[in-house]
């Protein structure tokens, strides 16, 4: 929320600089990012938002200047591109059309616009972008402590530990000698004799790295680079360094390497075993001097390495640190590295080097101890107050050689000790003291999902027992992706408010290199969560540069036969339906469409259209008479049965409906992209699947689908598979089942979204309200009553494994789209035009939400007060909105205290207003 508030504050300050009657371009982006450092496109797309003091403001023309230097840009010299005045209302995804761009080059640009009255704006602030190097220019040399061949690490993927061959497992353990798995430090001294203008660093340290220049950390990433399938893609990071980072004479580059997902270990807890090789580093730094000369410092055989004080690091097992192995100032000048060894030139990873364009994972919040219990002398359990993904920071003092073991967990056993049984054990952090006053330590290369910390054999704050070290301070670090928050929601219903909080704490905990299922026992990218929670994710977070990386991972993981596996990256092969389930794989088809709808950007549809086609074609090879019968179905559907495979509804019904949905969206993409033959092919296929689905699963006598379950009836309504003449009857049967179940759901991970949206889109929001406004299971209220701070894997937390899972969080879409009423218009993607159509239900008295769209802030805030319905809306410049009011046709309506005549939507039976940009207060009699 801090990121979101800072954006709003910055924009509000800019508004004060806008002259009356003008618009001003702000928040300039290149390829959807502000001042990116590694643009790979030859014709990048430029964009900006607009602000104005006036209502109903829009853009009618723009002029862009792109220059080779900031000095030239400041002199209005667009020596690279001067677009001239372009008569267009377009302010996003404008394709650069200037001189050919050079690689590894920084460009500067600005824009001015004309508004609807013909007034020209001031120039925007300067923006920049830097083009990425060609891979041939990088010419990477990978270095480390041991070659892949000498490390004897096993090749290939592994299967889930339940079926993992013991012989292979043991060979994995025995073959992993210390250099193959050990964190190492690498250093490279270099000299600076001239005045530095700037420097650019290109680096990839696998699994993860920490880079320092003269002892100072570069960047704020916690786990860089982000995870990928390293056989297909290897991310590298780009950093710009200023002259102040260097000193005349001797300078030192220092790099610390850890294992990450690149090289998992078998000791302690692990979900699976996979290795792409021992820790390895690629580095290149291009230094530019004021005299115009350049110098390159890169990874080669002149570097040296030493084992680091991190004696164990596993993404699944934890981390150990021995402070007595520290080498003071190892990454600064003057350090004597005679005992260090020359690096080995290593085999390069198989994957293509690509710049990491998605935001980094960083430490976002810190929590202090909420409560502490001393279960027995010198045995403490700390409640940090929030379940999260992360790691602790400790401050300790004691004698040299004393150690402190830090256990972390989501929950507690009955006796009050930490419980890791559900989340993967043993997982812990060991710190060995050097005995030098108060020592502070934070792990670098491992994280876990936890709320509680257990530490034995210590004093806490007071030195009561000299045999033990003293814990002076304990903090909990919450890590998640730094993409930033895009929205906020609050209403008069406390269950809904706390539900929103639970879900978002879980999303953040699993918003890492990829969207994971849980931050402890698996840390895997199960795909269905992304598409089924997609609208809620996009309303809450800025995913413009994150989702393209997700689609690259999906493309990398697609098999030669077209299968998209259930987890991406596919570090482990689960086999059977746990590898191949249509509801998961179809994410590769749905996600580009969601991206287009929310951001108005068709680039993912264009780039990954072949991925979409190949997956639908793959499902066709698994179909019999257009019926697909494999997969997990409505995973974790609710009932008295154990959670897992769909039990309430036919798996074939679920699989075939998603086969249809994939074909339908692929046909739609073909039409949008002008691929006529493909459109006809997949449109015909979708029609054939729909016919087969209705023949197989619809009972004309009962007007029900499948097993008459909520999932069985909701899915064909949502996907528009049911024939129009039967839709109302199917809907009534669905409502009857919900009522029979006491206004409770029976759907699961897959079905929740379809059930929720079927109700919301068909005028049954009161049913949705009753279904969730309670403290029973199934329901979010039960978890609130249970005292949890994150959403769990099952409705009853006592039954599930993970207590930090966002897969059941599909109600977020309803909060924003129905309660607050902010809804996109598929015909004008990216919220160029949108709807504000709040739903008032139950005893609710207010709801408000805002969303930072690509065009600017959208807000909807309503309240019932003194017999009136009062709605305040905010519409960004250069967009329009249709406002549908939840009042009677003959209601008196005022905008900013002035009476207005509204239109009327016969289908929705609601008064309608068409509004341009601005902030409006609409008051209606109830």
From TrEMBL:
Residue ranges of domain Alpha-L-rhamnosidase concanavalin-like in the record: 374-462
EC number of this enzyme: 3.2.1.40
UniProt xrefs under InterPro entries: 6-hairpin_glycosidase_sf, 6hp_glycosidase-like_sf, Alpha_rhamnosid, Bac_rhamnosid6H, Bac_rhamnosid_C, Bac_rhamnosid_N, Ig-like_fold, Rhamnosid_concanavalin
Domain (Alpha-L-rhamnosidase six-hairpin glycosidase): residue spans on this chain: 485-818
Ranges where the Alpha-L-rhamnosidase C-terminal domain occurs: 821-896
Catalysed reaction, written as an equation: Hydrolysis of terminal non-reducing alpha-L-rhamnose residues in alpha-L-rhamnosides
Sorted UniProt keywords: Hydrolase
Domain annotation Bacterial alpha-L-rhamnosidase N-terminal: ranges: 195-364
Residue ranges of coiled coil: none
Listed GO biological process terms: carbohydrate metabolic process
Gene Ontology MF terms in the entry: alpha-L-rhamnosidase activity
Protein name stated in the entry: alpha-L-rhamnosidase
